[in-house]
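Run ABC transporter ATP-binding protein through structure prediction, thanks.
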Amino acid sequence: MALRQQRPRTDRQQSAHPAVELRAVRRSYGRGDSTVHALRGIDLVLPHGSFTAVMGPSGSGKSTFLQCAAGLDRPTSGEVLLGGAEITRLNENRLTRLRRSRIGFVFQSFNLLPSLSVQQNVLLPQRLAGERQDRRRAKELLAQVGLAEHGRRRPGQLSGGQQQRVAIARALITSPEVVFADEPTGALDTRTAHEVLGLLRQAVDSMGATVVMVTHDPVAASHADRVLFLADGELADELVRPDPKAVADRMLTLTAAVGARYGYAGAAA
Ligand SMILES: Nc1ncnc2c1ncn2[C@@H]1O[C@H](COP(=O)(O)OP(=O)(O)OP(=O)(O)O)[C@@H](O)[C@H]1O
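Sure, done. The structure for ABC transporter ATP-binding protein is below.
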C-alpha cells in the first residue's frame, strides 16, 4: 500500500506562501472574571509538504487551535492565513466553501456517511463544493490506500482501519492546502494505527500534502516532522524529527509543570 506521486504539484503547493499561517491568534471564551483564554497569541508558519503534530496536556488548547486554524471557529483576535489568503474575516458562506475545497479533515471517529458507498464518500467533498466529481482520481486514491476493491462497499462493511483509510482518501480528493487530522488513530489498535500514520506520512512525502495532526500519542506524533507542544494556550515547546521517547519525556515535563502551577499532580493528556 503506497501513496505514489500521481500528479504534478498544484500551483497552490508551489506558491511562495506557507500552507497555513497563524498571526497572534487569541481565542477566549466567556467574559469578565470567568473568561477562559484558550489561545493566548499563537504565531506559527506551516510550510507546504510538512507534517506537524500538536500535543499538550488536557485543556492546553489543542482543539481550539485546530478549530481556529481550520476555519471552524473564529479567533477572538489575530489572523489565520491559508495559502497566503486571510480567512479570519470571510463570511460564513465563503468560509464553508473554502473548507470544502481547500481543507481536508480526518477525525477520530472517521465520520463517513453510512448510506453512501466508499467511493461516494471519497467524492463527497467535491460534490459538496460543487466541483466535478473526479471518479478516476477517487479510484486512484482508493487504490493508494489499499482499498481498490472496496469502492462499492458501504462503510459499515469495513474495519475501523479501512474506514480511516477511506477518510484519508476523502481528505485528499480536492488536493487541499492542508489536511487537519484530529486524533486520527484514537480509535484504532496499534498495528492499524501504524498503517494509518504511514499513509499520512506518505501523503506528505509522495504527494506534497500538508498535514497537521492533534494527538495524545507520542508514537503517533513521532511520525511527524515536527511536534508543537501547547500549554495554557501558548506554544510552549517544539521537537524536530521527534522520537517517541523524547516526545513522551517532553509531555511529562509539561504536564508536571502545568500540574504544579494549578496545584495538582497530573493532568494526563
Ligand atoms: N466552548 C467553550 N466554552 C468555554 N470554555 C471552553 C470552550 N471550549 C474550550 N474551552 C476551554 O478552553 C480551554 C482549552 O480547551 P481545548 O478543548 O482547546 O483543550 P484541549 O487541549 O483540546 O483539551 P483535551 O486534550 O482535553 O481535549 C480549556 O480550558 C477549556 O475548558
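Residues 29-30, 36, 38, 56, 58-64 surround adenosine-5'-triphosphate (CB under 6 Å).
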